[in-house]
Design brief:
2 copies of one chain form a homodimer.
Chain A lengths: L3 H22 L8 H11 L6 H12 L4 H22 L9 E2 L2 E2 L1 H31 L4 H15 L4 H9 L8 H26 L4 H28 L2 H4 L5 H4 L5 H5 L1 H18 L8 H10 L5
Antiparallel strand pairs in A: 1-2
Helix pairs in contact in A: 1-3, 2-5, 3-4, 3-8, 4-5, 4-8, 5-6, 6-8, 7-8, 8-9, 9-13, 13-14
Family (chains A, B): Belongs to the FPP/GGPP synthase family.
Keywords (chains A, B): Isoprene biosynthesis, Magnesium, Metal-binding, Transferase
Pfam families (chains A, B): polyprenyl_synt (PF00348)
Amino acid sequence: MMNDMVKRELEKNRVWFEDHLNSLCSSRPENIPPRLWESMTYSLQAGGKRLRPILCVKAAESVGGEKEKVLPMALALEMVHTASLIHDDLPAMDNDSLRRGKPTNHMIYGDALAILAGDALLAWAFEYSLKGLMDRGVPPSSIVQALSIFAQAVGPSGICGGQVLDTDPASFTSSLSFVANIALQKTAVLLQASLVTGAILGGASQEIAGAFGKYGRHLGLAFQIVDDILDVTSSPEELGKTPGKDAAQQKITFVTQFGLEEARKMALKESKEAAESLFMLGSSAVFFQKLALSLSKRSR
Amino acid sequence: MMNDMVKRELEKNRVWFEDHLNSLCSSRPENIPPRLWESMTYSLQAGGKRLRPILCVKAAESVGGEKEKVLPMALALEMVHTASLIHDDLPAMDNDSLRRGKPTNHMIYGDALAILAGDALLAWAFEYSLKGLMDRGVPPSSIVQALSIFAQAVGPSGICGGQVLDTDPASFTSSLSFVANIALQKTAVLLQASLVTGAILGGASQEIAGAFGKYGRHLGLAFQIVDDILDVTSSPEELGKTPGKDAAQQKITFVTQFGLEEARKMALKESKEAAESLFMLGSSAVFFQKLALSLSKRSR
């Protein structure tokens, strides 16, 4: 069960974020082809926990920053996350037809447009955040620092690399650290970047930004371990996507490597380490600490 | 025939750029999976005119900037251009097996890795240029301005949008401006961004940067018109890729819309307008002016 305070905070921020996202999606910029826009916004508006933008905004607030000011960064994080989901679902990759209970992008728009919508969202994330942060008067040096961390999380040593490790059989190794590397690159780096960019744009010191980085790493690992567990233990209704895909695709996961019981212990251990990473924040850390402990018990 | 001075300048800068590119590609950053790196660098090192990085560097030099300082931007432009070629060649898109006389990325690495290599190059362009320009002491405000223009050229209203117009039948219209819009978004915006980012990072005034933007727009249109012409008139050996694809795929091009003779006239007209756009640069503009006139006569 998720802690009530955490649940309330997540829901409040999800609604706030989705209001802004829906307003952004409601009017197409003139130069974007209508069909491309439709495909991009279909997936952007397909729901989800909105965890990355929420972490970004909460991190900014916890160090005294303003929510509205980091909004472009929060939107960029969700754009990139959405782009990676669209591409991961393609027939050439995970070949998934269901995501968050809805048909995946390529099922509706075809492979070509799904590829281009992913590319477009990836690039738009940079375009939108650069312009949005400038317009809000964020100092250029903070913008460059935050976007540099963001880009690193997205690129070949971040989620793109993680997806290769996850889908390319020739990259598989049997090393114990391999499954952790997948989790770090596939999931943890972007959660980490959400927190660290939020902290930096909110005005955090390097030390505090670093603590958020450590928290994000443990949170991301916990999150991915639970994801691997849920793929084995959930029904499609609970999960909102097709479970059992990891096994069907012979993926290397925390469950295949360590077994269900050990994986549960590992998730709890990472959650606890996440919670401890933010002790220097004092009472501002309570939400993040409770969140880490709740996430290890989530059911979707 | 290409003007000798232009030819020499292009070749000198191509060699300089490729030296840096090859040195970058020669050592894999630790966190990038080996197979992904192989796929990314295969396409990056597959040759080509390197026109975008050369335009960027020459624009910077023409306003008194240093070549070495804008190198990260030049590399980023080539990364994004390469990413777009990898995705355009995919079976779901143009389904091309030959590019610059070599097998296309997906022919060697498969569709999944080709999709991810394109994504990775797209994100790496931002990661690499942000860090590289910071390390070289470029003022953050110039970095933000240049990357903002770059991102816009890459995103949904830039080359991603152009590719949708080019490949998605549902986006086709018969309007006369449609073929020009494809050319602008597919080709001109990135050539434009190459010139404008180079000028900005080289220290140009807004007025000069604007002149480069105008030049790039005409140059890009001329370039695309000639591309459409060559697809009809060239052999595979001359072109280094498969000709006749436009007709086979029933694409709307300058040749299908206006005929070969009229298209030739249009290319020449755009080249001339390009050359005139830079009059305020005086003798620094000579290379660019001769280049524009040469490009309208290129044979590959």
